[in-house]
């Protein structure tokens, strides 16, 4: 079985063609885009929090 972290699903037939078809699918590509977009915003929020903390402590 092949597990897709982005889609949180198991592909029942673990063959290259099934994985290729899944990875080219609209839902998978949307999930990958969302994952990396959220990762970027979370990192930005960490930097904002660090700056605010430094400002509050003088």
TrEMBL record:
UniProt entry keywords in alphabetical sequence: Metal-binding, Nucleus, Ribonucleoprotein, RNA-binding, Zinc, Zinc-finger
UniProt-listed InterPro entries: Matrin/U1-C_Znf_C2H2, Matrin/U1-like-C_Znf_C2H2, U1-CZ_Znf_C2H2, U1_snRNP-C, Znf_C2H2_sf
Assembly: Component of the U1 snRNP. The U1 snRNP is composed of the U1 snRNA and the 7 core Sm proteins SNRPB, SNRPD1, SNRPD2, SNRPD3, SNRPE, SNRPF and SNRPG that assemble in a heptameric protein ring on the Sm site of the small nuclear RNA to form the core snRNP, and at least 3 U1 snRNP-specific proteins SNRNP70/U1-70K, SNRPA/U1-A and SNRPC/U1-C. SNRPC/U1-C interacts with U1 snRNA and the 5' splice-site region of the pre-mRNA. Interacts (via N-terminus) with TIA1 (via C-terminus); thereby promoting spliceosomal U1 snRNP recruitment to 5' splice sites.
Name of the protein this chain belongs to: U1 zinc finger-domain containing protein
GO BP term, pick one: mRNA 5'-splice site recognition
A GO cellular component annotation in the UniProt record: U1 snRNP
PANTHER family found in the cross-reference section: U1 SMALL NUCLEAR RIBONUCLEOPROTEIN C (PTHR31148:SF1)
Domain (Matrin-type) ranges: 2-34
Subcellular location: Nucleus
Pfam family membership, one: zf-U1
Gene3D superfamilies linked to this entry: Classic Zinc Finger
Entry GO MF terms: pre-mRNA 5'-splice site binding; zinc ion binding
Superkingdom of origin organism: Eukaryota
Organism this protein belongs to: Rhodotorula toruloides
């Amino acid at each position: 079985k092949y597990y897709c972290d982005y889609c949180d699903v198991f592909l029942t037939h673990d063959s290259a063609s099934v994985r290729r078809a899944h990875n080219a699918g609209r839902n998978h590509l949307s999930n990958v885009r969302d994952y990396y977009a959220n990762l970027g915003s979370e990192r930005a929020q960490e930097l904002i929090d660090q700056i605010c903390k430094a400002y509050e402590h003088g």
